[in-house]
Amino acid sequence: MSSLPTADPYLPGHGDPSWGATHYELDLDYDLAANRLAGTAVVRAVAEQDTDRVVLDLAYLQVQKVTVDGRPPAKWAHRDHRLVLTLKRALRAGEAFTVQVKYAGRPRPLVLAPHGDAGWEELSDGVIVAGQPHGAPSWFPCNDRPDDKAPYAISVTVAHNYTVVSNGLLVGRTRRGSGETWRYEQDEPMSTYLATVQIGRYRLVEDEGEGTPILGAVPESALAGYTRSFGRQREMLDYFTEAFGPYPFGRYTAVVTDDALEIPLESQSLSTFGRNYLTGRWEEVRLVAHELAHQWFGNAVTLRAWKDIWLHEGFACYAEWLWSEAGGHESCDVQARRHHARLDRLGKDLLLADPGPALMFDDRVYKRGALTLHALRLTVGDETFFRVLRTWVARHEGGTVTTADFEALAAEVAGRDLGELFEAWLHRLPLPALP
Q1: 194 and 225: one domain?
Q2: Residues 289, 295: contact at Cβ < 8 Å?
Q3: Distances in Å between the alpha carbon of 306 and those of 1, 18, 133, 361?
Q4: 433 in a structural domain
Q5: Going by DSSP bridges, is the β-strand pair 163-166/197-200 parallel, antiparallel, or unpaired?
Q6: pLDDT tens digits for 35-65?
Q7: In Å, what is the CA distance from 113 to each residue of 12, 117, 188, 360?
Q8: What stretches in the chain show pLDDT beneath 70?
Q9: How far apart are CA 306 and CA 357, in angstroms?
Q10: CB atoms within 10 A of CB 399
C-alpha cells in the first residue's frame, strides 16, 4: 500500500486532505451485552483536490461492504486503521461524491502516541465516547481532521431501558422488537472528534428555565445530588450568552455517568461527567463552566490545526474565571494572578502557539492561554475585550480558525497594534508579567 496521508502532524496517520465531508449519516445497532456494534455510514463528500483515491479512518471494526456513488470502487483495502478506496474514475477538485460503508465488530478505544487512548469505551453498564483528539475512527469511518466539519444524522438502536444521548436534537424514538432506536440530528457543522454517543440507564431531566433548552441525563440514584454541581447551569448559560454571544446550538445536555470519570468529556451540544462531579465544590463547578464554554470556543468556533489548541482550552479556562466572579466566587483578576504565580514556578519549555503533540493538553496550555486573554483584557479594557470575544464567535461560528486569525481580529476590533502583546504571550517561551 502506498504512503497514506496525514492531515495534521499532531495526529499521525489520521485525515485525508484530498477530500472533505459535507454530511455524515450513521445508522448504528449496538448490543451492550456482547459489546458488538453494527453500522452503516453514508458519507457525502466533495473532492478538495484532484484524486483517484479516498482514505477514511476506521479502527478495529471489520468492513463488510463499500460503495462509491452506489457502485463498488475499483478496489479497497482496510489496514492499520485506514480504509483506502481506489476509485474507478478520478475525481476532480470540487466534485461531489458519496461513500457508503457497512461495518461491524467490537469497538474499543483507539491508542495513539503520545495521546493515549480515546474513543468508544464500555462502562460498567453503558458506553461513553471520548473523541478528543483521535477517537472518532473507533466507531465510524470518517475523515478524522479537526478542520473538516459537517452536519450529522445519528441513529442508534439499543435494548429497552437504556437511553442514548448524542449530538444535536433528538428527532425521534422508535420501539422495535427488543430494542429502541434513538435518532439525533446535528445540523450545525461539527468536527469528527466532537461526535459522540452516550448510552446508559439515564433519566432525562429538563431544566424549567426560559431560553435554550438544558437537559440532564442522570442515573436515578444520582438525581438527588445533580443540582449541587449543575443547578446553576441556566445562570451560566445566560451569563456566557451575554459575554460571548448567543448559544450556538439548539440544546445543551449534561450527561452524568454512573461511573466515576477522571475528566469531563467535551462534545458538540453536550458534555459528559462522572458521578464524582456531584459534590458542588468549586473544583467540580468550574469544570461545568469550562465544558459549557466549549460550546462557543471549540465547538462553534473550531481550530483548523491542533497546534492552536489554546484557542479552545485557554478560552474555556478563562470562562471558568469569568464565572467565578459572576457566580459569587473569587474575582477573575484574583484567579488570574494566583495562576500566574503558579505558572511562573513551572518549566518554561512550552510555546503556546505550537506546544507540540506531547504537550497539547498540558495544564500550562490552559492556564497560559487564559492568562493571554486576561492580559489582552487588561490592555484593551473590558468593553473592547468582550466585543472581541463576541465578534470572534459571530464571524467564525460554524467554521475553523487559527491563532493568526485571532491576533488579526483582536487588533481590528481594538483599533491598535497588539503584536508585541501576542508575540510575548503566544510565540515566546518566557512567561510575561501581567499588565
Answers
A1: no
A2: no
A3: 27, 19, 9, 10
A4: no
A5: antiparallel
A6: 999 999 999 999 999 999 999 999 999 999 9
A7: 9, 8, 31, 12
A8: 1-2
A9: 8
A10: 14
Look at residue 408 in the predicted model and tell me its pLDDT. Answer: 98
Domain count, the chain: 3
Q: Are residues 111 and 161 both part of a single domain?
A: yes
- From residue 188, give the alpha-carbon distance in Å to each of 243, 355, 398: 21, 29, 7
Same domain, yes or no: 186 and 207: no
The answer to whether residue 434 is domain-embedded is: no
Q: Same domain, yes or no, for 219 and 310? A: no
30 occurs within a structural domain: yes
From the list 219, 237, 223, the residue with the least C-alpha distance to 288 is 237
Point out the domain boundary residue: 294, 321, 354.
294
* 380 and 364 housed in the same domain: yes
Tell me which residue range forms the domain holding 282: 201-294
CA angle 17, 38, 106 (to 5 degrees): 85
The CATH number assigned to the domain holding 280 equals 3.30.2010.30
| pLDDT score of 125 | 96
Query: What pLDDT does 1 receive?
Result: 52
Chain center to CA of 429: 28
Tell me which amino acid residue 120 is.
Answer: W
In a shared domain, residues 175 and 133 = yes
Pairing relation of β-strands 163-166 and 169-176? unpaired
C-alpha to C-alpha distance for 121 and 123, rounded to whole angstroms: 7
Beta strands in 131-279 (DSSP E): 150-159, 163-166, 169-176, 179-190, 197-200, 202-206, 214-219, 252-257, 265-267, 270-274
223 & 355 share domain: no
Q: What's the pLDDT score for residue 178?
A: 84
Question: The CATH number of the domain where 22 resides is what?
Answer: 2.60.40.1730
In whole angstroms, what is the distance from residue 275 CA to residue 226 CA?
A: 9
Q: Of 235, 261, 294, which marks where a domain is finished?
A: 294
Cβ-Cβ contacts under 8 Å for 348 (sequence gap 6 or more) = 429, 430, 431
Q: Coil, strand, or helix at residue 394?
A: helix
**Rounded Cα distance, 231 and 214, in Å:** 11
Same domain, 323 and 274: no
Ranges of H-type helices in 181-305: 223-230, 233-244, 282-293
Question: Whole-angstrom Cα distance, residue 376 to residue 426?
Answer: 12
Alpha carbons 85 and 58: distance in angstroms, whole number? 13
Nearest to 272 by CA among 218, 233, 231: 218
Q: Are 375 and 321 in contact (CB under 8 A)?
A: no
**Strand partners for 51:** 91
